[in-house]
Amino acid sequence: MTAPAAARRGHLVDLRPLRESPAFARMWAGAAITGIGSQMTIVAVGLDIYDRTASTLAVSLVAAFALGPMIIFGLYGGALADRFDRRRVALIAAIAAWGSTAAIAVYSWLGVPDIWPLYAFITVNSVAAVMVQIARQAMIPRLVRIELLPAAGALGGISAGVQLTVGPALAGLAVAYLGFSVTYTVDVVLFLAAFYGLYTLPAMIPDGERRRADLRSIVEGWRFLRVAPNIRASFVLDIVAMTFGNPRVLFPAIGALLIGGGAVTVGILSSAGAVGMLVLGLLSGRVAAVRAHGKGMVIAVAAYGASILLFGLLLLVTAVLPIDVGTDISEANIPALIVASVLLALSGAADSVSMIYRTTMIQAAVPDVMRGRLQGLFTVVVNGGPRVGDLYVGALSLTLLLWFPPLLGGLIIIVVCAVFLRVYRSLRDYDALDPQP
């Protein structure tokens, strides 16, 4: 199951990708710093909209407005990454993302009462961020050796863990004590790190015959999935997990009504999953050495579903045995907040394991000239799934049963994983030493 050389390094994360590839190290650091600010804005926008409307459904509409453009430009971004210099594609998209972030900050400082500009700006920001992510991920196999791709994926998990831990926590504190305008402005400043990480990269022209970035090119990416059952299965599993197992739009209501604590509780819950991702990344030595990526991914997704199901049960118990709570953190139900944070941390750790295996499978098994389009499809799945999940949770929240969406969603994820583990033999037999799409 493990590569002997990797096993000898123990449980700690393998840092060789950072040491061997300074270009990868710069891109990795730039993405981590920029991501902290981006997560601050994501959390702040949710709090801002809830503060204006007192509606979880209104918060979930951020997903509705962004979903369509994100899918279109995510797919087209993959085609662009397979046609042009991937470094240049990433830089242009980063400029658009930074501009939309600055627009959100200006909107907040001006005190515009209308809410629709906030939806518009965050949609542009989401679309541009997706295109940056596509180009960045497609470049990684050109920056590190193939045998170090799992280690690079684990480092990506650490980066995501830092972003999702520090960003939401800072957002909760900043919104509570400094206001929305300052929180958005911090993101504008931190985003500058992305330009350093991308600008210093070498040119990244795709290998092989490059197609025009048009509809035919995008369709070729879809057709590749017909002969790539392992990649196709990984996409479906991620869609299921992110659609039915992402309770983030419930956090403002949980902080206001169920557990209490207001914005600080929202920050804690939003960052809890990332704590698990960060810890798992730091202790990923043995995880990155596993060769059975397909089986490991399915088991990890099932563990994710179990954690979300238990989170729903906790909310049910909290609702049945109510305790008077307020919007100040001193008035929160602290025991429930601690247990909820632990369960979300476990879900983050499981998600990180599945991400390491899924990302490595795409980067190792897909040809370079097709990698941008497949990464585009994958990025649409990764970013679109949670937004569909936001709508799923937002719609079910109209029942006023905050525990119901995660409870049902976790059960659905577990059942789907059991079916996949039984039906997909090629996924069960996947070997990292002989990667097959």
TrEMBL record:
It is a multi-pass membrane protein. Keywords: Cell membrane, Membrane, Transmembrane, Transmembrane helix, Transport. The chain crosses the membrane at residues 28-50, 56-77, 89-110, 116-136, 148-178, 184-203, 251-284, 296-322, 334-357, 377-395, 401-421. It holds the Pfam family MFS_3. It comes from the Bacteria. It is found in: Cell inner membrane. This is MFS transporter. Residues 186-437 form the Major facilitator superfamily (MFS) profile domain. Its main location: membrane. InterPro entries: MFS_dom, MFS_trans_sf, TM_effector.
